[in-house]
Amino acid sequence: MCVFGGRASSRFTALNTPLVQPLLLYCYPPIPFPGGTVHMVCRNKDKAEEARADIVKESGNKEIYVHILDLSETRKVWEFAEAFKRKYKALNVLINNAGCIMSERDVNAEGLEKSFASNVMGVYILTRGLIPLLEKSAEPRVITVSSGGMLVQKLRTGNLQTEIGRYDGTMVYAQHKRQQVVMTEQWAKTHSNIHFSVMHPGWVDTPAVANAMPDFHQSMKDSLRTPEQGADTAVWLAISEAAATKPSGSFFQDRRMVSAHLPLAWTHSSQLEQQKFMSVMEDLAKTFQPH
């Protein structure tokens, strides 16, 4: 358990989308802000309730609420955001933490490639939909959990759903994590009253890593981080006063602001490319928005 100097209080409300696999809720546990209210947005009800019980027991905070939502179901993400805004008056922190790695390409009922729908479109819609609620709070923050895998990827503005070419789930995931970095940077420019950040948790020992990269997991398992270690920077970004002094839109690892690009990696994209990507996301998101 880490201790943070922060701003949590009885009026502090956070929404966290934990990583949910088909039969498993794991990875970075929802954050037990002392005295605040935490809303967990999860896919698996049984695992979510189990996690909630553990958090209540450990923290003593009963203001932990579970909402069942699959972020790959795009229309339902819109509906959730609208319902949440109607029910609650403010939101202090949004943590985008859900994600998935697919071994082969699959599409959801709406025709979207599932990992793109969950990792990118779901994050885009949920964040965009809740920005008006965040703007009603003092010092609102949005933290998105990315991955160091994105460091080998340059932003793609086309073929976003990997309809062309071979489907490599690990590389697709890495591209999605690059897209999350770009979304964070662009949101920071257009919403100056919200503090946006994106972070790499380090390589954490989770079933997702074991299943997606078995050779890597086998060779590195003794060096992988625990879920608590992986969550540390996200918690710090959410509640510490020091984090709020860092530039909005920055990329973090181990509580430090670091470059979102490796030297000589040729992963930089132009402002025009980034704006084109955001425009494509907005247009696609609107096609699923309830009227």
Can you put this structure into words, describing what you see?
- By secondary structure, the protein is of the alpha/beta class.
- The protein has one domain (13-286): NAD(P)-binding Rossmann-like Domain (Rossmann fold).
- The protein has helices at residues 45-59, 74-87, 114-134, 169-190, 207-212, 214-220, 227-239, 271-286, and strands at residues 13-17, 20-21, 24-25, 37-42, 64-68, 93-96, 141-145, 195-200, 250-253, 256-258.
- It has an 8-stranded mixed sheet, sandwiched between helices. Strands 2-3 form a two-stranded antiparallel sheet.
- Strand 2 and strand 3 form a beta hairpin.
- The chain starts with 12 loop residues before the first strand and ends in a 5-residue tail after the last helix.
- Mean pLDDT is 85; it is low at 1-10 and 19-30.
CATH topology tier name: Rossmann fold
Give the oligomer, counting copies of the same chain as homo and different chains as hetero: single chain
Biggest β-sheet: strands ordered side by side in the sheet:
5-4-1-6-7-8-9-10
Extended strand count: 10
- Portion in beta strands: 5-15%
Q: What's the CATH class, please?
A: Alpha Beta
User: Architecture, CATH level 2?
Assistant: 3-Layer(aba) Sandwich
**Shape verdict:** globular
Order of helices and strands: EEEEHEHEHEHEHHHEEH
Helical segment tally?
Answer: 8
Please state the structural category: alpha/beta
